[in-house]
Amino acid sequence: MIFWKTIDIADHQRALLYVRDQFKRVLGPGRHRVSTPQGRVAVDVHDITDVLFKNRKAQFLMTQYADKLAPYLEQFNLKDSEVGLLYRDNKLASVLAPGSVLTVWKNVEDVRVDIIDISENYQIDKSLINLLGRGLTVGQSREVVNAILYAEVPDEHVGLLNVNGKLESILKPGNYGFWKYNRSVGVKLLDLRLQAVEVSGQKILTKDRVSLRINLSASYKVKDPEIVALKVNDYAGFIYRELQLSLREAVGTQSLDTLLEDKDTLNTVITQATREKLANYGIELVNVGVKDIILPGDMKQILNQVVEAQKEAEANLIKRREETQAMRSLHNTAKMMENNPVLLRLKELEALEKITGQIDKISVYGGLGGVLNELVTLAPKKA
Question: CA 200 to CA 31: how far, in whole Å?
Answer without folding.
Answer: 87
